[in-house]
Amino acid sequence: MTRKSKGISPLVAVIMLIAFTMIVAGILAGWATRFATEQRSILEKCVRANIVIKRATYAAGNLSVMLYNAGTVPLTNFQVQVTYNSKGPPMPSTWTIYDSIDANSFETFSHNVTNTSIDFVEMRSVECQGAYDLIRSYDVVGLP
Question: Cα(83)–Cα(118) distance, rounded to whole angstroms?
């Protein structure tokens, strides 16, 4: 005598699919809530962030930039990009400064620069990309 094996009943299959769907939806809802909360807090902070380059000087291979945090929140970690003018395409040089500036305060950052054919200097907050300022070479004191 041979036995025919049967699968699960359609009712049980539907119940299992609904349960699986609800579990996945619960996991995604939790993740989406946390993600939205984190993004909102970052956005609320970055709306109040603003930086201004007050002065830039070049002396003996050293570029010094005085940065003013004109926002209402402290900022940390800045990316500096110096773009050089040349006969070909612009050549950028980028480095990161791991320092902080309190709200409504000044800080001076320095870096060795061997090339004096600077076109512009841009400073940008790493945590708030919208907080940045740019200064042209004619505003950098001491460039030849």
Answer: 6
Tell me the C-alpha distance between 105 and 101, whole Å: 7
Strands 106-112 and 91-101, by their bridges, are unpaired
50-141 topology per CATH: Immunoglobulin-like (2.60.40)
Nearest of 144, 82, 88 to residue 119 by alpha carbon: 82
**139 CB contacts (<8 Å, ≥6 apart)?**
56
Model pLDDT for residues 10-61, shown as the tens digit of each residue = 888 999 999 999 999 999 999 999 999 998 988 888 898 999 999 999 888 8
Tokens 């709306």 locate to 47
User: To which residue do tokens 């054919």 refer?
Assistant: 117
Q: In which residue are the tokens 């002065």 written?
A: 55
CB of 104 within 8 A of CB of 80? Answer: no
d(CA 23, CA 18): 9
Q: What secondary structure letter does DSSP report for 40?
A: H
Residue spans per domain, the chain:
9-47, 50-141
Paired strand residues for 124: 79, 132
